[in-house]
Design goal:
Oligomer: single chain
Helix content: 40-55%
Number of strands: 5
Radius of gyration: 14 Å
Shape: globular
Order of helices and strands: EHEHEHEHEH
Largest sheet: 5 strands, parallel
Strand order of the largest sheet: 2-1-3-4-5
Number of helices: 5
Strand content: 15-25%
């Protein structure tokens, strides 16, 4: 089964909190998490082989091993994921990171909010736009 959100995040505590925030936004949303770039790429390859396409990919920038930018490049090389929105979701607010991410093909770059309440607000905004307002061929 395809997750609604595929989240690549090496901080296990933040990933755990994110799952709760997503459930508060919508109990129907499913999240699949990869802890590093290598496991993300392996999972995405399996998704492609099994024809499981997430509706949204959230990608941390600073990952151990393969960086978030390198994962983004690889995602954009897989035709099956061509129309899946990829959002960089990072603690960075460096304009060079933003520029590079967008040039490689990210659909957006968001700085992780501080605090659980702000995370819920952020996830609600993502949900409203990417799942309700945005038109996609996915």
């Amino acid at each position: 089964m395809s997750p609604d959100i595929f989240y690549v995040e090496d901080d296990q505590d933040f990933a755990f909190i994110m799952q709760y925030a997503v459930r508060e936004v919508s109990e129907d949303l499913t999240v699949s998490i990869a802890e590093d770039g290598n496991s993300a790429l392996a999972t995405l390859q399996r998704f492609a082989e099994e024809k499981h396409r997430p509706k949204l990919i959230l990608l941390d920038l600073n990952l151990p091993g393969i960086s978030g930018l390198d994962v983004l490049k690889r995602i954009k090389e897989i035709p099956f994921f061509k129309y899946v929105p990829v959002i960089l979701f990072s603690t960075s607010d460096d304009l060079n990171d933003v520029r590079t991410s967008l040039e490689i093909g990210a659909n957006a770059f968001l700085t992780k909010p501080s605090g659980y309440h702000n995370l819920i607000i952020c996830m609600r905004s993502l949900y409203e736009f990417w799942f309700n307002q945005n038109r996609s061929i996915n």
